[in-house]
Design goal:
Length: about 525
Amino acid sequence: MTQIAHDRLLIIDFGSQVTQLIARRLRELNVYCEIHPFNKVDDAFLASFAPKAVIFSGGPASVFADGAPMPPGAVFGMGVPILGICYGQQVMMHCLGGKVERGHGTAEFGRAYVTPTAAVDPILTGWFDTDDGMGGREQVWMSHGDHVSQIAPGFEVLGTSPNAPFAITADRSRHFYAVQFHPEVHHTPKGAKLYENFVRLAGFKGDWTMGAYREEAIRKIREQVGSEKVICGLSGGVDSSVAAVLIHEAIGDQLTCVFVDHGLLRLGEAEQVVSMFRDTYNIPLIHADESDLFLGALEGVSDPEVKRKTIGRLFIDVFDKHAKSVGGAKFLAQGTLYPDVIESVSFSGGPSVTIKSHHNVGGLPEKMGMKLVEPLRELFKDEVRALGRELGLPPAFIGRHPFPGPGLAIRCPGEITREKLDILRRADAVYIDQIRKHGLYDDIWQAFAAILPMKTVGVMGDGRTYDYALALRAVTSVDGMTADYYPFSHDFLGETATRIINEVQGVNRVFYDCTSKPPGTIELE
C-alpha cells in the first residue's frame, strides 16, 4: 500500500454509482482520501491504512438480503468519526442495533426537502438558513427504496424528510453521522458544506496540495527506480506529459520518453509534441516513426476490437525495441489515473465488464519483463492538470482535450485508409479551429471529428458529388466516466459544416452526435 504522509480518509465503497464524487468533494477540500471496495477492507487493512475518518458510500443492496455488503466490525471501535451515506446509513443502523425495512410509500427518488428536528449540530453548520427563501428546509437528493425504521441506540434525529423520518442522524458522543440522501451530488446544493463540516470535526488539516504531492511523488519515484533506466510511453496527452515531466524532475536522464507516431495522429501533432519536449524540457526523447508498421497491420481491418488489439500488440513491440535500445530499461512509466485504478477493482471484487480493450497498460510490463512507474495513479484528471501547472507546463498544453491512444483509428469506423485519415485530419483541424474561434474550447471536455463508413450524394455548384459523411462530437464531463453532449447553437453547427465542406475535399455532409454517455461512449469505437 502507498504510504502517504498526510492524514487519510477511507471511503468504503458499497457499490454506489457516485462514490467517486465523494472522493472528489473531499479532494476539493484538500483532504487525501482513497476508495476501497467493502470486501477488500478487513481488520488488517484498517490497521495498516490507519484512517483519521471513514465514510460509508451508498449502494444498491438491502442490508437484510443474504450476502449483503457489510463493513468490518472493527471499524466501529477505531475511535474515528464515521459518516454513512444512503446504504451507508442503513448499514450503520443495521450493525449498531437499529432496524431497516422496506415498505410501501417510504421510497424516495429525486429531490426531497429536509427540515431540522433538533438544535443545529456542528455537522450541519451552514444548513437550514431561514433567510434563503427555503423556510429553514434544505433540498437534498434521495435515492432509496429501503428506509431506517428504528435508529440505533445512542443516535438522535437531526433532520427529517416526508418519506425519511431519519434523514439525518448522529451519535454525537462517538462522532458517528448518517444521512439517507446523497450530499456528493450537485442536486444537494449544500452537500459540499456537510463534507466540509465532517472533515473539520474529524480534525483534518486540509494539507493535500499539489505542491506537497509533487515532493512526495519525486521521493517515491527515486526510491522505486534507484539507478535503473525508465522509458515513458509519451502520447502527447496531458496525463503522459505530466507524468514524464514529473519523472524527469525526479531522475533526470535516467528517463527516456518514447513518442510513437503510429500514423494515426492529428494534424501537426507529432511536431508539436516533439518540439515541446526536446526544446522546452530537454528530456531525452525517441521519436519512433512507425506509421508504416501500424497502417500496414491495420490495412483491411474494420472490427474495432481487432483494431485496438492490433495497435496494443504493436505498441508492445515498439516499446520493447526501444527499452533495449537505451541500455535495458527496467521500468515502464505511464499516466494511469485514479479512476482507472478504481474501475479495475469494482466493489463486487472484479473488473467491470469490458466495453473496449485498452491499447496499453495491461500486458506491457509482464510481456516486457518491466515494472510499472505510475506517479499519477492517486489523482483525478483535474488534479493532474493542477500538478501540470505546479510543474510549469504551458497552459495551452495542460488544457488540451483528451486524445485516445489508438488515435484516429477509432474515429474512422470501418476500414482505415490513408485517404480517409488525411480527410479526417483536415476536417478535425477545421472543427477545433472553429471551437477555439468561438471561445468554447475550455468549456468542452473533448471534441473531435469522425469519418463515417459511408458516402452520400451531394451537389456542389452544378455537379454531383459522392463523398464521405462526417460526424462531429463534443461532450462535457468531469472525468470522462459520464458525459453530456455539448449544446452548440445551430448557427455554430451550420457555420462549421459549411467550412468543413468548403475547405476539406472529400466531405459533402456533416452530422452532429448528440448522444450522451451512457448510453453511448465518448469515442465512436
